[in-house]
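quick one, 146 residues, struct below
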Amino acid sequence: MTGRCCGEVLLNSNLEEKRMSLRIVRLGSERRGKELRIGTVRRPPRGVRKEDYSKLNYYDVWLPVLSPSPELVKLGKEAADEKSWEQFKRSFKAEMNRPDSSHVLDLLAALSQRTEISIGCYCEDENHCHRSVLKELLQERGAEIS
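---
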């Protein structure tokens, strides 16, 4: 320990030696380690008890502010070609540019420098999912993505 400040214990650590990162995952998939898993979905998993969300690898924390609006979810699911998918991406980026969402993205990018976290949703194909857009937005903010 190096000292105390306002009741917090400050520890020596060398962040250069231990690289942390953020992973983009499908919720419910196997965890890589003990990372904090964040669900960026509009709704909790159906048929799963709240106390089982973490045990079943869905998420530890639910953060719907990083999920598309219901209207955009529909637009994304209906996007059958590149043009309609690009429209979804533009609209979702506009939603994520709102102050609350933007601040959360900044926080996650900063946290990725210091701790292992993962974010995700239920979609099978990451390339046709809002989490691919979140990945892009987080990289623009300097997130360590693995």
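Residues 17-140 form one domain.
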